Amino acid sequence: MINNIMPGTEEQLNKEMTSAYVGIDPTADSLHIGHLVSIMMLKHFQRAGHRPIALVGGATGMIGDPSMKSQERVLIDEDTLRHNQECIRRQLAHFLDFDSDAPNHAILVNNYDWMKDFSFLNFIRDVGKHITVNYMMAKDSVKKRLAANADHGMSFTEFSYQLLQGYDFLHLYETQGCRLQMGGSDQWGNITTGTELIRRMAGGEAYAITCPLITKADGGKFGKTESGNVWLDPKRTSPYKFYQFWLNVSDADAAKYIKIFTDLPEDEINALIAEQEKDPGLRPVQKRLAKEITTMVHSAQDYETAVEASQILFSNKAKDILHKIDEDTLLSVFEGVPTFEVSKDAVAAGVPLISLLTEHAAVFASKGEMRKLTQGGGVSVNKEKVADPNMAINSDFLLNGKYILAQRGKKNYYLLIVK
User: Fold this and answer.
1) What is the mean pLDDT of residues 316-320?
2) Is residue 32 annotated as a catalytic residue, yes or no?
3) What pLDDT is stored for residue 67 in this prediction?
4) Is 129 a catalytic residue?
5) Which long-range contacts (CB under 8 A, 24 or more apart) does 327-336 make?
6) Is 151 a catalytic residue?
């Protein structure tokens, strides 16, 4: 998990309980799995007896970090930042102990709280004079951004970002005794600006650790799917889809991710990888990775529900599972299947299935086609085979009070939404 470590860091950690912080960008009201690497660093750090500090970048989030960005980001207002901070704290509580009276309990801070009353004149006089423009221009994040955007350049707002992040480190050093900052490898330049400020303004010693930026084996961006980020908030990414993301990563990625995103001991991980090499079809690494991380981010119950939902398409218990799962999971499992709206009154009165699937919902082009497929055992309702095409469908068939699942042949599913 370590990409870069500043000389002296290990000695500091072995010497005493050390406070370390990670900065989190509050531009959304949920963290996504791209944040998990930093969070796992804080989690390991707390387990080792040190004190984690999660810094929500309320002030820096209003500006935007140029690292790994090709263009200026959209700025957000204070009310949105405060809302996002509260949501992020609730999510972090899944991983870190904020509330105990242990000396190394985690704390959450927002740099807006100490930056909001800092005047521009005071900042450039008291802080800016300690770091030269040459020093700032030499940072990779600045050089890459300027090279990539020769036409548009880089605003002074974004250029000042590393100075603001450096000041955060100084502030936490002075107020919380924070000696270490951690982050992704793209943050090395910003973090070392902080250690330099601490040296020049406080005469102190501070340290840095960065973790590698996680990528997929094919070089693609980690954590992105066709539908966008994989979020930790169940309203944005359902536990079922979250579970499926980890279950479907490649063997090479699974072997890497299980070391980073779980607390499993090394010998157990090696045994799972050896088992996978013997019989890749069983996918033991993906299954264990998906179990550990879904349970950690959501709950054991959400994990069990996701596993059951995954079996709907091929389990002989599919009918029972279908009636148990909640609406969000149902919609996640059948995301993308054709849907039809059907009148609630027609279903309440009891409608013949053959009429429902031809007149009310065009699952079949004709009644003759449906009769023929029914005789061959190729029509199911809510995962139960239909013997009589004229059977009455009423409110008893509704899943979650509003859905009926129709199946034509082995692979064609249709979701009827009863309104």
Assistant:
1) 84
2) yes
3) 56
4) no
5) 327/400, 327/402, 327/403, 328/234, 328/238, 328/240, 329/238, 329/239, 329/240, 329/305, 330/399, 330/400, 330/403, 331/238, 332/238, 332/240, 332/241, 333/240, 333/309, 334/405, 334/413, 334/415, 335/241
6) no
